[in-house]
Model the fold of this input.
Amino acid sequence: MALSPARARKRRRLGVVIIAAAILGIAVALVLFALRDTVVFFFGPSEVISRLDDPKLRLQERRFRMGGLVEEGSVRRLEDGKTTEFRITDGPGAFSVRYTGLLPDLFREGQGVVAEGRLDDKGRFIADEVLAKHDENYMPKEVADALKKTGHWQGESEAKP
Amino acid sequence: MHRFANPARFQRLASIILPWSDVLTAGLLVSGLYFALFASPADYQQGETVRIMYIHVPAAWMAMFTYSVMAAASAASLIWKHPLADVAARAAAPIGAGFTAIALITGMLWGEPMWGTWWVWDARLTSVLILFFLYLGYMALVNAIENPAAAARAGAILALVGFVNIPIIKFSVDWWNTLHQPASVIKMGGPSIAPSMLLPLVLMALGFHFYFVSVLLRRMRSELDLARVRALEDAIALNSEEAAA
Amino acid sequence: MSSFFAMGGYAFYVWSSYGAALLILGGIAIFSMARARQASRRLEELKRAAPHRRRREEAADGA
Done:
């Protein structure tokens, strides 16, 4: 049985919308894939190490952001009272960071951090901006303490690669 | 489906739903605020600023939900020429813009003390800002075109094209490194948020949903009334011209 | 009580967030209700002014 003209028109419009949506979706996916190095907000230390000589990224010459966890026990405040040294790690890789300025409230050892600056010739990261990055876990202090005490603490989720 | 396309039937249905959605909105928001501000603990890392989450996260969900409703209505308007679909899409846009504005403002107010910055151009923040401009662009477009059928068509196409942004917002935190943290509630393996904090979050989110229903139905009503007002005004103008002739 | 308003030193950020949400959601709700009332009032006026149209529409409503 043939479709009535009205139903045929509706079906055609549905087809046009679906095809247009598919083409648009593919186009956007391709653009985002091409721009993937621009869209990322920061690079992890191990990524910086493996792509140090990547001519597209030019990580040795330009400013970029490095993100990861502040290594436990690595934070050191220098005598001038304004400069902090710490290490950013993402498990396999780590960099020493030197930063002069105020740190955000959430900056602490074992927590996520994003530093912006450039590498010096000794392979140290000289940051002029440090932002704290928090994880997706929310709980009261008592719960966190109890988890740590019983050994069920999962650690910061970002420590996973 | 077309049973509800009749505006008179819609008006009757709306009169039944509205008192319920009004009561639920008020009840859920009042109890949600009680838990959000008084009866929930501070976070082990973020302290009292975690209370911003109970506004920020539901508002961000609603910003995406409202856009999805708008896009679905736009598809129905474009494909099936459903008479109420265009009205629904138009009515939803300002509500969605409001939710997006709240998500952006509260996000900045949360980012400054916790991250150390009001704003960064990471993938999540930027894609939500684009969502806000999509809402504004949609409203400007449908209001700028005088012919209702042409306005509905142009608006529906814009809303559908803009829908690609919704999965980008949702998955931006998984696809790329962002300053914004990944999802806490809707994710694989269950929420990573303590029950005492999940409760106010869920109450506020439900309250926002019923708020959306209440305001959307009222806005759809006025759109329908105004359409009839325009038709009657035209008819009266025509009658008086005939009488004069 | 004063510690409640202080929000652990983050009073400005927390209360501004709730204030902004109240302002925006409240504003949209009030504006939408006022517009709905205004539209239905204008519609009633016009229906009275054009009684012959009114009969036809009521017949359609009942269908």
Notes: DSSP finds four helices and six strands in chain A. The domain at 44-159 of chain A is CATH 2.40.50.140 (OB fold (Dihydrolipoamide Acetyltransferase, E2P)).
